[in-house]
Amino acid sequence: MALNGYVEWQQAVSSEGLSLRTGFTGVDAWAPLDGLQPARSGGLFGVSVDTWLTRNARLSWGYDQRFGPRGDNRQLSLRLQQAF
Questions:
Q1: Which end of the chain is more exposed for a tag (fewer CB within 10 A), N or C?
Q2: Is residue 34 within 8 Å of residue 22, measured between CB atoms?
Q3: SS3 for 48?
Q4: CB 44 within 8 A of CB 63
Q5: In what order do the strands lie in the sheet with 57-67?
Q6: How many Å separate Cα 80 from the centre of its chain?
Q7: What is the rounded CA–CA span in Å between residue 66 and residue 42?
Q8: Three-state DSSP class for residue 21
Q9: Please, what are the averages of pLDDT over each run of 10 residues along the chain (84 residues)?
């Protein structure tokens, strides 16, 4: 069993104007990230517990908490990895 954790701080280094227009690409999907305020900073804290179920299967449970002016969102995750 393993316990993992991280803390992350996010802040815009520079921007032009008041509107930040950007996007991301992944798995044949594209979405704009309009309306973000680049001057806002914020952090993210996360922990996870990983354990091997079998030689080829691993189970992970995680918790993430965002804090600061960007919002106070929480997320739980459960992941099963199976090698074949």
A1: C
A2: no
A3: strand
A4: no
A5: 2-11, 41-52, 57-67, 74-82
A6: 18
A7: 7
A8: coil
A9: 89 60 52 54 90 95 86 89 92
